[in-house]
Design a protein that fits this description.
51% of the residues lie in helices and 3% in strands. By secondary structure, the chain is mainly alpha-helical. The protein has a domain of 156 residues: Hypothetical protein af1432 (Orthogonal Bundle), CATH 1.10.3210.
């Protein structure tokens, strides 16, 4: 039986404890443009090329383990990949634009090195895939690229990785060839330009300039409509 007070009355029942529900974690990032991009459900309407260029110019390839006074940025890497893809092919502007945007999700999620991607597994790949589809839709490209275009981008990406690895990241030629395949043949002046790490603002400006060249020749009015 419950204890009685001095006057014989039962003490008042204690109020039930309040259950606190945890707030869901924030899954969006605010961009300098003012957009808020949801990483789990990204909308093409929240994607701006200026945010992409700004972010990629400040994301380091190779976890920053490269020679030079500046990081070798994802923006500069992307421009190198596009230069390699154009070596022996007459590519239309849409394909070149897809190449320029192939690493665009990294303006939000960063450039994770391949060994760490293997540790994390499919969760990272799914977020990356959703972001890339949204980027493609924003700029008038198919959500999923044709297989031959995807393979073209992968091949040029491996070529860029070989050059970066041997020129900037301390790999020997034999080791780099095992991981990335045969190196592409760039003119010495092009190689010096694209493999000398640029300051962030220069990388951002050159990325935007190249985008504007491709965008103007692809669909001049879509950017304003969206």
């Amino acid at each position: 039986m419950p204890a009685r007070s001095a006057k014989g009355a039962a003490p008042p029942a204690s109020a039930p404890a309040k259950v606190r529900t945890a707030k869901p974690p924030r899954a969006w990032q605010r961009m300098l443009s003012g957009r808020r991009l949801d990483l789990l459900d990204p909308s093409p309407l929240d994607i701006e090329i200026e945010d992409i260029a700004h972010g990629l110019a400040r994301v380091a390839r190779w976890n920053g383990q490269t020679q030079g006074a500046h990081i070798f940025s994802v923006a500069q890497h992307t421009l190198l990949v596009e230069a390699i893809a154009r070596l022996n092919r007459n590519l239309d502007r849409s394909v070149r634009l897809a190449i320029l945007l192939h690493d665009a999700p990294e303006y939000v999620i960063g450039d994770m090195i391949t060994p760490f991607k293997a540790v994390i597994g499919d969760a990272y790949k799914e977020v990356e895939r959703r972001l890339l589809r949204a980027v493609h839709m924003r700029f008038g490209l198919p959500g999923d690229l044709a297989e031959e275009i995807a393979e073209l981008i992968k091949s040029a990406d491996r070529g860029a990785a070989y050059l970066e690895a041997t020129r900037l990241a301390g790999f020997g030629a034999a080791e780099a060839r095992r991981f990335f395949g045969a190196p592409p043949s760039l003119a010495p002046s092009v190689e010096r330009d694209y493999l000398t790490p640029w300051p962030a603002q220069k990388a951002e400006d050159r990325y935007l300039r190249r985008f504007d060249q491709l965008w103007a020749q692809k669909r001049p009015r879509i950017r304003q409509v969206l």
